[in-house]
Amino acid sequence: MGDHYETLGVARDASADEIRKAYRKLVRELHPDINPDPQIQEQFKHVTFAYEVLSDDQKRRNYDQGGSSFGGGAGNGFAFNDIMDAFFGGGGSRGPRPRSRRGQDALIQIEIDLAEACFGVTKQLSVETATVCLTCAGKGCTPGTSVKPCDICKGRGEVQQVTRSFLGQVMTSRPCNSCQGYGTIIPSPCRDCGGDGRVRTRRVIDVEIPPGVETGNRIQLSGQGEVGPGGGQAGDLYAEIIQRPHESIIRDGDTLHLSATIPMTAAALGTTLVVETLDGPQEVDIKSGTQSGSLVTLKHLGITKLRGIGRGDLIVHIGVQTPTRLDSEQIELLQQLAVVRDEVRPEASQSSAEKKLTSKIRDAFTR
Fold first, then answer.
1. Which end of the chain is more exposed for a tag (fewer CB within 10 A), N or C?
2. What distance in Å separates the CA atoms of residue 293 and residue 322, rounded to the nearest whole number?
3. Quick one: fold of 4-78?
């Protein structure tokens, strides 16, 4: 730790005033708020400890006689807060708090259906929130009265007190308990808002929901949140979108998907299918020989792009329905077709993908 006199840079016969001046000079150079370097902070601790010993007559006498630095009343410690207050303005005046403050932001959820998400919609919302008290116009006082300066702090919003530390007398400030730091008091609070300058009420807000939104998107409505205390500026209102599922259409970003099942004969011969979309009924051309699982894309019938131009696509997933109940005439016709197509005793064809799957299954059982 080194010699305390050398740490402070003073002679061994230095007076108390010289020690105090030397310490204050070092504090201004080494305090963590000025120099956050870890090595400098460690040096600052040694300087502070040296000052604590040399500024106390009993501790200094004990140290000069070769005793412990902690002798003669050690354990009182040193107050970093007092140091900061004394040297860096911690005890300086902060002034009264303003009664008018910004209000809090608010969040609500809005449910919309798929068509509203695609094309946009205007929703009317009824929300309960804090609004300016009309009786006192946000001032918090009974009409015809006004605030007056606090008798305790004289309008400063804080009171000062003197405390003793190893540095001597230190003046600190704290908020005035009488006026809660405002510097003023309300002699006659408004009967409707109780002096807060705002009341809770229900109001209707129009929310413009743009095309292309989806669940989780938020719309910011500036100044539509809660009015602050003292009739302060209103916060913002955020509307979070919740999109309800559609009964037959599935959304994937800007793309829509729907399923359509057609008879086996229609898949073989080809046909025109009508499907219900967000834009109303649309015709879908089914080519002859269409297989189950085929996809037909209807361009620009998907969701409007929220941050782009145009719309996504609608993809129709085709399923082929195999008849399960046949009368004798239908059975005879299908049998004749099977003979013509040489499919009376058909051989199963296996695709490359199916072969890979079969190979994996076989390998799993032979390991």
1. C
2. 14
3. Helix Hairpins (1.10.287)
